[in-house]
Structure prediction request, 597 residues.
Amino acid sequence: MMTDLIPTLSPEEIAEIEHEVALIPRRDSAAIDALMIVQRHRGWISDTSIKAIADLLQMSAEELDGIATFYNLIFRQPVGEKVILFCDSVSCWLRDADQVKARLSHTLGVDYGETTVDGRYTLLPVPCLGACDRAPVMMVGDDLYTHLDQSDLNSLLGLGEACD
Amino acid sequence: MTDRPLTQHLRPDGNPVFIAEYESNGGYDGLRRALAEKTPADCQQVVKDSRLRGRGGAGFPTGMKWSFVPMGDKAGPGHKYLVANADEMEPGTFKDRIILEQDPHQLIEGMILSAYAIEADIAYIFLRGEYTLAAQRIETAIQECYDAGYLGTGIQGSNYSLELRLHRSAGRYICGEETALINALEGKRANPRPKPPFPQVSGLWGRPTIVNNVETLCNITHILTHGADWFQSLGIGEDSGTKLFGASGNVMTPGVWELPMGTPIREILEQHAGGMREGYQLKGFLPGGGSTDFLTTDHLDLAMDYDVIGKAGSRMGTGTMIVLDDRSCPIGMVRNLSRFFAQESCGFCTPCRDGIPWIVQLLSRFEDGQATDADLVLLEEKARFVGGMGNTHCALAPGAMEPVISALKYFREDFERHIHEGGCCYQHAAGGH
Prediction:
């Protein structure tokens, strides 16, 4: 599981954020980009990161936290090496996503919002992934997996046989 | 001239078309010609004459939307912006993905021409964060355009200049609403803004801004190249052009197809989607994504035209249909949708923030066998209030209630059965988590 070891922003993070700031009229308008940049480096957004980003963008930490907690893809808690975004919307539901979700939870030993004990995966629901013609679907990290009702989830996730 | 302008050059293998192949298919000829031969006013007039309507769901005439942008000196000092709304998050909608992943230059050329028509000097592609493959390919395509002189200063030797940037969203359905999208681009929470002022006058950082859907923008190149009459002739009903229609659910071959505007629903569901899977019967469908009203087997011979679907009591929306079969519970389906809208509400307006979760609770009472006749009355009353136009700041709550209210209309006996039989008797019930 990734932890937030660097207390303040690294030179790379600051450079990437300043690159965004230079393109726009207000420093605080880079808030979402800055959160995404720091999350890319650290896996998640800690309280310390909120404070450091807010200072850099000359805005209040409270306001930045209000933005961070608004968006689905900004994680305010540590997550596993890869986040699984499981589509729980209507077209996947019609194609038995609930059964696949139950199988996935069983395979991983976690429910929504939880991380596997080995720290490899965090399971989260996600609104419609826009691949409804290939339902049911999910993302693992940056990769989309489709037709999950016909998939062997163990091999897809690089796991051995499910242990009961 | 093609009758499938949007998909004519997609590769059968699904691999992306990058700049060399795009140009060899005639790509960017339209841009070069328009910059040399047409003024922004000329471009706007052709788009207006084409009767193109927005493909993102609302169906507002594109030329009219553009006409509110102050032009020339009237715009005052500063930037003007064009934004491609590529935040495809409407449940059951998967049409823009194919263009974004497979033909990014088609979007970019349409954007450059649209930006030229409104004299914008900065453009953004607002892409949903989960479209990772599209993001890589768009980044590549944008760089190719800068290298080839289609973006940047003095495009193709003209005195028109445009910067194009990709913004990857941090994820929230409400970002698809244009003023919420603008707030997200400004780095804020994506709460919709009150209108007026309209974004055309005061949008991104207070400057004139146009937000158009991906499919809408892709049409612009073809309209300017082949003309308004050609575009109008593509439609076989009242509306102009083609549309990326789609179908998902328990149909034989779910997918997305470019077809003439006005194509009958029956043709889409029976020919292109191949009818229902074996053992499933058609019970109803949402014609254009998760925020449109149910239609039923009685409506199969209607044309997919904005006004025809509107008169039937629904909306064409995104044109991607979600099909309900006889083995799936209609209450379970609308509960799934209502949960989505409850989660994705920005929380600004009370009827939406508190009302949609209440609807979810009421629907759960039906699924769990606790509902009484009084709950049916309450559900109907609250759904009409939450969905009432003018009770909330934006259209999220009214859209959310369209499937609920129409389910009450068409599938009332299902609600009554849930009351009298003490719960859900469908093979494919509500599930849930």
